[in-house]
Amino acid sequence: MANPVELGARAAAQRLTTPHSPHLASDVEAALHARQSTTRPEQYLDPISLGALIVSVASLAWTVYSDLKKQTSAPHRDVITRHVRIRLDQSEAPPQALSSADRDRYIDITIEETLNAAQDSASGQG
Question: CA quadruple 2, 91, 85, 82: dihedral positive or negative?
Fold first, then answer.
């Protein structure tokens, strides 16, 4: 089965890459590689790396989704997003170069892509 964290992080990087962040996909790949040595990161791997933020959000979204799935068959996306935001707010500060609006956009897109990957994997499409 495909890993929803990796699929979600990669899909989010593709959607979020701009001329100002052309290396975002490679940053995500580096963060995914670094993540292989940990199972449940509690904070950003690199507080100034957008790639690390995306991987952290994808990992956290997957963890929250998996935990809520034990309680209900279809956890609502808004509930997952709220849990992720609360946990992120309790961890280290986001990358300093990121505005709060951009941070929210990165979080929303990454959660969306991770949950899409999770649903695709569960239905056998991934």
Answer: positive
Mean of pLDDT values over 70-84: 92
pTM for this entry: 0.75
Which tokens belong to 58? 């994808």
Coil vs helix vs strand at 38: coil
> CA quadruple 16, 63, 78, 43: dihedral positive or negative?
negative
Domain boundaries, the chain: 4-122
Smallest CA-to-CA distance from 86 within 61, 66, 67 is with 61
Closest CA to 52 of 3, 113, 110: 110
Contact 41, 89 (CB under 8 A): no
